[in-house]
Amino acid sequence: MTRRFPEHGKPAVSAALFRAARLQAALVLACGLAATTAQAEENPGKPPAAIEGSTAAAPGEDDLKNPEWIQAGKTRFVQTCAYCHGTRGEAGKTRSFETRETWDPQVIHDTIANGRVNGPNVMPSWSGSIPDDMIWKIVAYIKSLSAGYKAGK
Ligand code: HEC
Asked: Of 43, 53, 71, 149, whose Cβ has the fewest other Cβ atoms within 10 Å?
């Protein structure tokens, strides 16, 4: 003989299931957060972009003066950045890129990757849309614009 649970028992059962499911969701969330935190702690000095897998180490001067890098960076700069900066960085809201002889490549890279907000002047962050190696090629192009830092020297 099959014994049926009375109808009124059902809501109690599903409420319990619902609570269990909620608890599980909370646990999954908590584990996920713990994992993310642990990952961040393994890379204390690195910016979040590094965790997302775009970790090319800063290239050396040879790479930054490589004409192929400069050309590739120029193509991308003209497509994506000239709208606000002019094709040679002469038309933006900051000092022309052509006058920046001692500009640290890492600083240029980080500004492009992370963006910067300065009151109404907003430099978007590009780490989500431009791969890190291309950001470095753009840096090579920007460096090539100042007279004291010619390619091939
Ligand atoms: C929507 C307009 C806009 C676009 C597109 C844009 N920028 Fe910018 N960028 C700005 C503004 C505005 C600033 C100045 C922010 C400030 O005042 O701190 C800036 C600042 C910078 C700086 C720092 C300049 C300095 O003097 O420190 C660099 C480098 C730079 N941008 C590179 C790029 C590159 C490379 C791209 C393309 C991938 C790009 N920008 C696209 C608006 C833009």
From this structure: 53
